TrEMBL record:
Keywords: Membrane, Sugar transport, Symport, Transmembrane, Transmembrane helix, Transport. It comes from the Eukaryota. SUPFAM superfamilies: MFS general substrate transporter (SSF103473). The keyword Ribonucleoprotein does not apply. This is Sugar transport protein 13-like. GO terms for cellular component: membrane. One of its GO terms (molecular function) is monosaccharide transmembrane transporter activity. It is a multi-pass membrane protein. NCBIfam families: SP. Residues 22-472 form the Major facilitator superfamily (MFS) profile domain. It comes from Pyrus ussuriensis x Pyrus communis. The chain crosses the membrane at residues 77-95, 107-126, 132-154, 166-189, 195-219, 280-304, 316-338, 345-367, 379-400, 421-441, 447-468.
């Protein structure tokens, strides 16, 4: 009866303005994250920034002009400037798990906004490298808190039938932030006097203010309010966001999940229980696979590929604009398709698309691009650029957004905050590792790095085929009954057995 009642609730639930506005405002956390991801590479390449904070690196870059195409950018010390963001996010997400559960999703987003503002001020205004580094740490804390709270907020407040599309607003803002950052970097690099890097870092205050002000406007999710004992407020908010008085079935399910959550004293320890293995394994695997698709390899090497087509000094701008636009447009495609064709179909289709495009790129570079010269013909360069865009579009409508969506909607309420914390932590850890070792990999493996990542794409596609369940149109509090207990493999973790023994 509960499922039937819930189905009736779903059919009556409206797509209300308060939900749309709340999701748009909350997803600005992704805009901030994307801006920080996109701004770092451009800033660390600006001569004014290097002269001021990394004079030794600047001096060495002037001697690397004759280096191999694959090794010219390899400097681990400078990479740490970018990687600090991910390290700080990794640590802060565990604190964010506590605030998300105890203070709510909305206040956690407010804390993230404050971290972003403080970090932006430190980065853009101070003269000493130590203060800039502290600013990066504050920004990383903002990323940890925002990436913890925003996906949960979006999944919990959205109506079931469009939950995937609204959740992907987070990733859409990430892609918009990256595109905006690259355009800002291009303009800032042309500012005379060598202080353009301050403009790049300072404009991070725009998305930071959007998230901060947005978190003061939005309502908290019914799940969070009920979990914290605010039952009347939770019921009232549920009626407002669903646009109907008939919310009792959904309210009862959230209340039941909340009661179960209150019995859990140690949520992180509870995550390791037999019954919680399926969503935990899926969440961890999704983050590892998302980073090992090779997206960073494609985006990093794109300017060199574009340069072979005769774009000259504007190669980086063309690469940023074209790939950034493809990234944004393909993410929009995902918003419209994810709740229609499903999560699995997008992941599997994209796996084939990414695998083929990376193989083509790797093979072309193996035979046509030597260490110190670019030998691509105009025709082959066109083929490679098309393959780059093909790869980016596939990632943007699959592993990019779904790497965040699926973990945010599959954990039960009692472990949702802790599960999202592990998700963010694993993502930031993989970002840090890829950020630190990719340049070394490119230098040592050369074109083989693309073949390396294509092998990972094959593995992750097989993982999806056999182990990732479909979650579209399933109410978030019914995942256990309708998803995990129905899956051919994961159901063994949800039966009356634990560790192979009867409970």
């Amino acid at each position: 009866m509960a499922s039937a009642s819930t189905a009736a609730d779903i059919s009556e639930a409206k797509i209300t303005p308060i939900v749309i506005i709340s999701c748009i405002l909350a997803s600005s956390g992704g805009l901030m994250f994307g801006y920080e991801v996109g701004i770092s590479g451009g800033v660390t390449a600006m001569p004014g920034f290097l002269k001021k904070f990394y004079p030794d690196v600047y001096a060495s870059t002037q001697k690397l002009k004759t280096n191999s195409n694959y090794c010219r950018f390899n400097n681990q010390g400078l990479q740490l400037f970018t990687s600090l963001l991910y390290l700080a996010a990794l640590v802060s997400t565990f604190f964010a798990s506590y605030t998300t559960k105890r203070l709510g999703r909305r206040l956690t987003m407010l804390i993230a906004g404050i971290f972003f503002i403080v970090g932006t001020v430190l980065n853009a205004s101070f003269q000493e490298l130590s203060m800039v580094i502290i600013g990066r740490i504050f920004l990383g804390c903002g990323v940890g808190f925002a990436n913890q709270a925003v996906p949960l907020f979006l999944s919990e407040i959205a109506p079931t039938r469009i939950r995937g599309g609204l959740n992907i607003l987070f990733q859409l803002n990430v892609t918009v932030g990256i595109l905006f950052a690259t355009l800002v970097n291009y303009g800032a690099a042309k500012i005379k006097g060598g202080w353009g890097w301050r403009v790049s870092l300072g404009l991070a205050g725009v998305p930071a203010l959007l998230l901060t002000l947005g978190s003061l406007v939005v309502v908290d999710t019914p799940n969070s309010l009920i979990q914290r004992g605010k039952l009347d407020e939770g019921r009232a908010v549920l009626k407002r966001i669903r646009g109907t008085e008939n919310v009792e079935a959904e309210f009862s399910e959230i209340l039941e999940a909340s009661s179960a959550a209150k019995e859990i004293k140690h949520p992180f320890k509870n995550l390791l229980k037999w019954k919680n293995r399926p969503p935990l394994v899926i969440a961890i695997a999704m983050q590892i696979f998302q980073q090992f698709t090779g997206m960073n390899a494609i985006l990093f090497y794109a300017p060199i590929l574009f340069a072979t087509m005769g774009f000259g000094n504007n190669a980086s701008l063309y690469a940023a604009v074209i790939l950034g636009a493809v990234n944004v447009l393909a993410t929009i495609v995902s918003i419209f398709l994810v709740d229609k064709v499903g999560r699995r179909m997008l992941l599997l289709e994209a796996g084939i698309q990414m695998l083929l495009s990376q193989l083509v790129i790797g093979i072309v570079l193996a035979f046509k691009v030597k260490d110190h010269s670019n030998n691509l013909s105009y025709g082959l360069a066109i083929v490679v650029v098309v393959m780059v865009c093909t790869f980016v579009s596939a990632f943007a409508w699959s592993w990019g957004p779904l790497g965040w969506l699926i973990p945010s909607e599959t954990f039960p309420l009692e472990t949702r905050s802790a599960g999202q914390s592990v998700t963010v932590c694993m993502n930031m850890l993989c970002c840090f590792l890829i950020g630190q070792v990719f340049l070394l990999m490119l230098c040592s493996m050369k074109y083989g790095v693309f073949l390396f990542f294509s092998a990972w794409v094959l593995v992750m596609s097989l993982f999806v085929l056999f182990l990732v369940p479909e979650t579209k149109n399933v109410p978030i509090e019914e995942m256990t009954e309708r998803v995990w207990k129905q899956h051919w493999f994961w159901k063994r973790y949800k039966d009356d057995y634990e560790g192979g023994r009867v409970k």
